[in-house]
Amino acid sequence: MRKYEAVYIFLPSLEEEKRNNLLDRFKGIIEEEGSISNIDEWGNRKLAYLIDDIGEGYYVLINFEAKPEVIQELNRIAKISDSIMRHMIIKQDE
Q: I need a surface site. Which of 39, 52, 55, 79 has the fewest CB within 10 A?
């Protein structure tokens, strides 16, 4: 298994319950074949540039270990979710 770091930017107007449901979905996908070492919610932050006329977003950082197949599923879910403005998953150096 490899170590990864994922950053998700949620819509700032998204209700806390809906955001937590989506985060739980990501956690479930990761924990099926991996493990989460840290989840850090940064809260609402100002964006460097407007995304669809929105100037801030709710940031969440997740550090985890998983197989590469898990990354494909996380990317798929993030792309089809209207609640996520941007996301990025990178492999950490060993």
A: 52
Alpha carbon distance, N-terminus to C-terminus of the chain: 11
Q: How far is CA 82 from the centre of its chain?
A: 13
Task: Determine what percent of the chain is predicted with pLDDT higher than 70.
Answer: 99
For residue 14, count CB atoms less than 10 angstroms from its CB and return exposed for 0-12, middle for 13-18, buried for 19 or more.
middle
**Cα-based torsion angle of the residue sequence 37, 41, 42, 48 in order, rounded to the nearest 10 degrees:** 90
Confidence tier at 93 by pLDDT (50, 70, 90): confident
Alpha-helical segments (H) within 1-94: 16-33, 68-80
CB 76 within 8 A of CB 25: no
Among the listed residues 84, 74, 23, the one whose alpha carbon sits nearest the alpha carbon of residue 52: 84
Tell me if 74 sits within 8 A of 6, measured CB to CB.
yes
pTM, two decimal places: 0.91
| Tokens at 74, concatenated | 């996380």
